[in-house]
Amino acid sequence: MRYHVQEYNRASARLSSGLLLMATVAMLAPSAVADLAHLPKDGAIIDKLSIGISVLLIMAYALGLLFSLKTHKELFAGAEHDDDTQAHWPMGLAVGTLLVITVLVALVSEIFVESVQKAAETFGMSPAFVGFIIVSLVGAAAEFAVAFAAARKDRLDMSVGIALGSASQIALFVAPVLVLLSYVVGPTPMNLQFWPGAVTMMMIATVTASFITTGGRSAWFVGALLIFIYAIFALTLYVVPPAAQG
Predict the structure, then answer these.
(1) Residue 78: pLDDT over 70
(2) What is the rounded radius of gyration, in angstroms, for the C-alpha atoms of the chain?
(3) Alpha helices in the chain (DSSP H)
(4) Which percentage of the chain shows pLDDT scores above 90?
């Protein structure tokens, strides 16, 4: 509410929203096929489909990086700010610091998430609510802090990039890699078939993000509407019994 209207790069937001939409469709496919054909969740057909989709998602993620960082990088330049004229760190020092901090944040998040997850289960919260709301909020606390700080400085490019970019990275890279690694290090293979209600919420969230970010401008009321949609999801997951989320 500090700023009447804030603007951000539409090209970057559209790319991330498009990638998210494609990833959501990819994750919807195994659940839809299993329901239509009445296939078991751990069937070989779903596993094969998940492997193929995982490879396609990783390829799409790589092409998205090539598009935004190489072939069309001029479309994704953020707005200039006064503090951009300050001296920057050397590339080696910046990359090294980023890697060290990433490892430390990952370790702290892992410990924190595990503690919060056990506490939530003790209070009787459903697994879906814990996974979709509690763990996701706690695990991304560091990202949220940076996004909030950037928005307060009217650098909405960074805030939108963190929000959509993080979600795209999880859906297009982390999840597919986990599926493939599950055949090497996991006790049982992982697939991309999820609870239909969860996939439906993902689709609604993705479509909403795509619709909201097409304009390249935002005001406080738009954010309030997004928070209400999130609260509806949270309330739904909280009241639905675990047996219905299987």
Answers:
(1) no
(2) 19
(3) 10-37, 44-66, 91-122, 127-129, 136-139, 141-152, 156-169, 175-181, 196-212, 220-239
(4) 14
Which residue shows structure tokens 């006064």?
A: 82
Question: Is 209 exposed, middle or buried (CB count within 10 Å of its CB: 0-12, 13-18, 19+)?
Answer: buried
Which of 38-42, 54-58, 163-167 is least confident? 38-42
Instruction: Determine the Cα–Cα distance for residues 131 and 66; give it in Å rounded to an integer.
Output: 32
Kindly state the tokens that stand for 200: 């439906």
> Crossing angle of helices 10-37/156-169, nearest 10°?
30
Instruction: Answer yes or no: are the C-beta atoms of 45 and 101 closer than 8 Å.
Output: no
Q: Which residues contact 25 (CB under 8 A, 6 or more apart)?
A: 203
pTM score: 0.77
Residue 59, φ and ψ in degrees, nearest 5: -65, -40
Mean pLDDT within 112-128:
77
The ranges assigned to domains in the chain are 6-77+92-245
